[in-house]
């Protein structure tokens, strides 16, 4: 019987030690309201700047320089790309596409 009382007291002490709610956890703001509304959650993202950046990127894609266009043309043609690895893209473009003659 004495062992049962000691085990019961020990169990109560363990339960009190592990289940005690400290005052520090009650102080946090999330304890009272753990969720924030959608407007506050998305405050750090400005939609206008994101859309503006996308439109600027699209404009930049449309207005490519002539060297970039030549390099892309050369990258699409495998022998030109191999030649470019050894001699550079400008030389490879001139070698494969520079002397175009139309009749």
Radius of gyration: 35 Å
What fraction, in percent, of the residue positions are helical? over 70%
- Percent range for β-strand residues: under 5%
pLDDT average, as an integer?
A: 77
Report the sheet with the most strands, covering strand number, pairing sense and barrel closure.
Answer: none
What is the H-and-E element order? HHHHHHHH
**First-last Cα distance:** 113 Å
Q: Note the quaternary state here.
A: single chain
Low-confidence stretches: none
The shape is elongated
Query: How many DSSP helices?
Result: 8
Number of DSSP E strands: 0
Structural class: mainly alpha
Relevant terms:
103 residues; mainly alpha; 8 helices; elongated
Task: Walk me through the topology.
Blueprint: H1 2-19, H2 23-27, H3 29-32, H4 38-41, H5 47-62, H6 66-76, H7 78-87, H8 89-97
Helix pairs in contact: 6-8, 7-8
């Amino acid at each position: 019987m004495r062992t049962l009382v000691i085990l019961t007291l020990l169990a109560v002490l363990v339960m009190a030690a592990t289940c005690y709610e400290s005052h520090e956890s009650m102080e946090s703001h999330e304890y009272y309201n753990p969720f924030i509304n959608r407007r506050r959650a998305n405050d750090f993202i400005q939609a206008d700047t994101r859309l503006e950046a996308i439109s600027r990127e699209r404009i930049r894609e449309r207005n490519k320089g002539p060297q970039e266009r030549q390099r892309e043309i050369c990258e699409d043609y495998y022998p030109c790309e191999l030649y470019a690895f050894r001699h550079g893209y400008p030389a490879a473009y001139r070698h494969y596409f520079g002397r175009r003659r139309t009749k």
